[in-house]
Amino acid sequence: MPTVLVHGVPETPALWDPLRAHLRRDDVVALQLPGFGCQRPPGFGATKEEYVSWLVAELERLVADGPIDLVGHDWGGGFVVRLVSTRADLVRSWATDAAGLGDPLFEWHELAKVWQTPGAGEAFWEQQLALPPEQGGSTLEALGVPADQALIMAGWPDATMTDCILAPCARPGAPTPGRPVPVGCRQPRRGQPGGSKGRRPRRTRALVDAAGPGAGRGRARGFLGLGQLNPHGGGPPVADVFCRVRLPGRL
């Protein structure tokens, strides 16, 4: 019964190494997004739908080993939400820290807005690639990545990876909001992580059926504002939603 991990940006599957070592299991598969620390396949446009189609093909290959528990982080979490909207049959359960992408009111963070701006995104990555790892690592450290890991991660981006990051931001097929978050996700109450200090947020009921028919009809748990999953531990919350869903009848 494999657990399949999907990383985000600007990352590679090595992001999951500390977690995999902690789990001490031999059925954990960390997938590598095309162009992220590896070659970009010929003709691969790196759009959202192309990545989702690639992920579907990977799961179709792995499902022969048993029911799949799918976990997505960052952009990988967005691909997970999209996948289960069309191919929920491929997974036993799924978890994402990017379910907010499905909310019609979702707003991209400031860095993503830079990437989405023609010219500005290219200039940002040109500058980042010119920095020594120590300087690039300080940016990641400010986002909550431990210093030793930040230094390693700063060496991951290259021209191929940055082209793949910019492609979904600047071309047709870019990840866009417009659907509610998956069924079962709800805002935290007072006293829970991400909750308001004085009163419960307005949107307290479940926001329904984000991922489409069948994707969230099992046991779902999630909280708006809980914060993005950090494989390194610690760090400030930077995302809107964490949601996990176990589908019925899949042991």
Describe, in plain words, how this protein is organized in 3D.
- The protein is an alpha/beta fold.
- 32% of the residues lie in helices and 12% in strands.
- The chain has helices spanning 17-23, 48-62, 75-86, 110-116, 120-130, 133-142, 147-153, 159-170, and strands spanning 3-6, 28-31, 69-72, 93-96, 185-186, 219-224, 241-246.
- α3 (75-86) links the parallel β3 (69-72) and β4.
What is the oligomer described by this structure?
single chain
Assign the CATH topology.
Rossmann fold
Low-pLDDT stretches are: 171-214, 216-229, 234-242
Radius of gyration: 18 Å
Measured as a percent range, the helix fraction is: 25-40%
Summed over residues and divided by their number, the pLDDT gives a mean of 73
Strand sequence of the main sheet, in spatial order?
Answer: 2-1-3-4-7-6-5
User: What's the story with the biggest beta sheet?
Assistant: 7 strands, mixed
Question: What's the number of domains?
Answer: 1
- State the secondary-structure class: alpha/beta
What is the CATH architecture term? 3-Layer(aba) Sandwich
Shape call: globular
Distance between the termini: 9 Å
Spell the H/E element sequence.
EHEHEHEHHHHHEEE
* Quantity of strands, as a count: 7
CATH class: Alpha Beta
How much strand? 5-15%
Q: Tally the helices: what do you get?
A: 8
